[in-house]
Design brief:
The structure holds two protein chains of two kinds.
Chain A (H helix, E strand, L loop, with lengths): L1 H11 L6 H15 L5 E5 L2 E4 L6 H11 L7 E3 L10 H14 L4 E3 L7 H7 L1 H9 L3 H10 L5 E5 L21 E6 L5 E6 L67 E5 L10 H5 L12 H7 L1 E2 L5 E3 L6 E3 L1 H10 L2 E6 L8 E4 L4 E4 L13 E6 L23 H13 L7 E6 L21
Parallel strand pairs in A: 1-5, 2-3, 3-4, 6-16, 8-12, 9-11, 12-14
Antiparallel strand pairs in A: 2-15, 5-8, 6-7, 10-11, 13-14, 15-16
Chain B lengths: L37 H6 L6 E2 L4 H7 L3 H17 L2 E3 L28 H4 L11 E3 L12 H19 L13 H14 L4 H4 L23 H15 L9 E2 L1 H17 L14 H25 L2 E2 L14 H9 L28 H7 L4 H12 L4 H4 L1 H6 L5 H18 L2 H4 L3 E2 L18 H13 L6 H8 L68
Parallel strand pairs in B: 4-5
Antiparallel strand pairs in B: 1-6, 2-3
GO molecular function, one term (chain B): peptidyl-prolyl cis-trans isomerase activity
Catalytic activity (chain B): [protein]-peptidylproline (omega=180) = [protein]-peptidylproline (omega=0)
Main location (chain B): cytoplasm
Chain lengths: 446, 545
Amino acid sequence: MSDLDRAIAQLRACRPIPEAEVRQLCHKARELLIEEGNVVTVNAPVTICGDIHGQFHDLMELFRVGGDVPDTNYLFMGDFVDRGFYSLESFLLLLCLKVRYPDRMTLIRGNHESRQITTVYGFYDECLRKYGSANVWRYCCDVFDYLALGAIVLGASNTLPSSSGQPAASPPADEVEIEVHNAHGHVISRFLRPKETKGDGTGGARTASPNGGLSNGVSSDSSSGSGSGSASSSAPANTGPPGSGASGSSGGSVGNPAGAVLCVHGGLSPLIDMVDKIRLLDRKQEVPHEGAMCDLLWSDPDEIDGWGLSPRGAGFLFGADIVKVFNHRNDLSLIARAHQLVMEGFKEMFDASIVTVWSAPNYCYRCGNVAALLELSEDESGLGVLARSNGEVNRSDGGVGPRGVLMENDLMGARSGPARRYRVFQAAPQDSRGMPAKKPVADYFL
Amino acid sequence: MDPPPAPTATPTPSSSTPTPSSSSARTPSLPQLPILSSSSRQTHPFTTPTKRIHTGADLTHFLTSLAYRDICTFILQLNRALCPRKLPSTPTTTTTTTATPGATSTSQLPPPPVSSTLNTNPRIKSQSQTHVQSFPLDAPRPADPLAVIRLREILAQVEGLIDLAPPEAGPRRFGNVAFRRWYGLLEERVAGGLLRTCLVPVDGKGGKVGEDGSEEGGGGGDEWLETAAEELKVYFLGGFGSAQRLDYGTGHELSFLAFLGGLWKLGVFSQPGRGQEEDGEVERAVVLGVFEPYLRVVRRLILTYNLEPAGSHGVWGLDDHSFLPYIFGSAQLTRPITDSEPMPLEGSAPGAPKPADVAKPASVDLHRESNMYFSAIGFINDVKKGPFWEHSPILYDISGIKDGWGKINKGMIKMFNAEVLAKFPVVQHFPFGSLFSWDVDPDAQAPVLSMHLTATATAGSTAGTSSSGPGSAASSAAGLPTPMPTGPGIPYSRAPWAGAGSSGPTPPRGGVPDTGPPPPTAFPRGVPGRASNQFSVTKAPWAKD
């Protein structure tokens, strides 16, 4: 569709498209999104991203680091808008890509995809300013209401495929659980999978966490700071020196499909004990101030037992016990979520049962953090065949598909975490951005 | 070219306010924050300020309150004092005595010696002979009032507490929890009488500055000092951010301003026998000698503890943390006036940097030590990485204004009214007591119901939330009509922006869709959970705390 491709090209150049086109785009996007369930099923391989917050140039950097659409299959966990200068361009580009490549792009809702929040945190102001009216803001908000609340990733592999950045002396692929790469594809740290002890419900979950869930006491600076990446690590893992090395190992051909990964913007809700209960919500509305839908978009994990009140004033805090019970009950190996700034770009907590992924580098131009994306590779053992079905088969199946696969995983005791490859990147250089003409000031100054 | 005189000459502060002492020398059109007479101080019913703004309707009430009037009056009074002055041909500025009664700062001054040439004033012979005195941060000032010196000492102590509460290392989250320890120390010091010293100069017991600096101390009949200090400390403590939320914003800045306004009302800045001040001299001492040092302490706090912006529109707000330096700083660069003229609405002082210079880092560095506007921009440049026009688009656009700093100053004041004083999320925490009173100002007009107010009032009355409709956000950036009508000038007649027109309630522009969020229930949200690491920002606008 050439109109769409032209819109994509224009948005990639960071130029907004006309209001009429936005209206059309949002209309098409709604038609597409309405067909999706509250919990979208996504098949590995997939690249999972956290908050964007209108940092358009950093989103371009993300695509550079993670691969372009449609070559890479993306899952964005919400908070596309607010705070940054380019919420409009960022969201519309993602939406265009969604409409253009529906199976290569999954967008779920963040707490900022809301009328009330966007009026407080900037997106509303931005639309008014860039279009002179609130129409575009309204079109976008209508799309927000249709965004899915979560996603289930199936068929992720326990092993990492080889990558060009792998040093020559890399450990066998099936022993690597976590790899951290810098923006140039160089491995900056690597964590081996501990020998598993069978029989434990969360077997093998005592993995070394690359940047430090407090619970396992392992931390590393290796992914923070610069993309140049030192390889130092206190983790009980073999970390190769950075640099490009030989490739072409046959990694990825061994291992089992890992348990499913639940992706959600914020976290869990005391009202949701089963993923299937998310599927029953009526999501097509403004994010409520409370209740399950609100919690999924607002909650945060914390070092507490059970549930706690959130200082945000919405959602809850939830502890490791909550996550472990939830993952066990739902045959999940991992929850991926966003919603909280992490200086190192990602943070695994609670024995790697939940990870925060943050994709807005130097947040708000001043936080000095790096960003990350999470790559889950495709299992090629043949055991995940159900999970690899193409197209829309699992999109709105009411949960039948995922259950089938999860049962299979359960029987095999393969709930240990999928192999994770994090790519860490910094804010895009600013030299390429032209300075705009000054715009008319607000009426206060007239 | 000159701006019209104040459109309406209103009476001196209404009788419901603390009795101004011998303020016979006031020019009615340039109101001043009244000072309690020494006798009324003794009997003044000081109270501990309490929160009053709970709903949108309360916000409407606030805009007609005595507190609102006094805040506005004080800001305009300070603002005008910073505007450069035309001087008569003799350039000996330090000895110039202005007899224009308009804006002398203390009410207990004996009538200034009459200087007939000046007293009959205002027509200065010709522009070419006019000398200009401006008031940069880094120029020597006449000796500061003792209270100003004491306040600086207090601020130095406050800043020193940072060394006692170093930021915590460890997993880096945004706001540093060590700020809570710092704030705890601040509370301890205040409870231990930190503020006492700045109250000492009241009643002239503080001695004159520059003589010996020692005060003769309390004496009898000073019980009121204790209760006054109790009232004022709430505003002082409110001026240094939120320990719970680890943030700092314009509401905190407003609180500190109210603290200074309260001190003003108590008369601590007036010192009988100090000699004559020039027009606005004491006000300038308050801004340049206390408020700017306060901002520097706050900036250090923000940097040290990574305090978040309190309620941020992201790049679409004027500034993450501050507002007043943009008012005062633009006043410093505005076209000079005589002592009887109102604040200009356009024009720049000779030699002032251009508004466009704020987008040039080198220019900002050049002027940040002398001007509050550039000082604030310099701090932004210190903190943010990225193109200025991208992270600060509102300031960038304002830098394109062609009509000079006077225009910017006027706009900033209107924007402050709409974006700070009329914003529920900002002023909801402001407490009211005897000095900033919740009582209705009998002279107040019904506030122009901005869209923000209508939206908030609706939400508030039904649910008691702090939600704001789209209208609230609109005004900050969008270049659309703002709630404030643009009159011919800033009326000095009363709380200036309160009733400058009466367009009546504006229908919500853009409109809040009917599918808006349902009202919250009584679930006690907003109570802090485990504090350790939950400050990565977005808070529910409907949260109560």
